[in-house]
Design brief:
The protein is mainly α and 83 residues long. It has helices at 20-33, 37-51. The protein has two helices and no strands.
Length: 83
């Protein structure tokens, strides 16, 4: 009987930069929790990496620019009244 062929799992490399202070803080936290920075980061983003592969629910999409809730005083149609 033949052995089952092992499937290759594809991985993607993600890189980001941290300041010296951020890295020191991350190392100190990991040392206190007896874990590695990689495990800590993977655990932190696990929800986002496992639940949105098919699609993102509408409630998670960014809404329109929130600044348009402020009215432009030049386009104001009703005059302001003091009383």
């Amino acid at each position: 009987m033949k052995k089952a062929r092992k499937r290759n799992t594809g991985y993607q490399l993600v890189e980001f930069k941290l300041s010296k202070k951020q890295m020191k803080s991350l190392r100190n936290y990991c040392r206190a929790r007896k874990t590695t920075p990689t495990k800590l980061i993977k655990k932190s983003i696990r929800y986002y990496t496992e639940h949105f592969s098919e699609g993102v629910p509408q409630k998670y999409y960014a809404t329109a620019n929130q600044l348009d809730m402020f009215h432009d005083p030049e386009k104001e149609e009703t005059p302001l009244s003091l009383f």
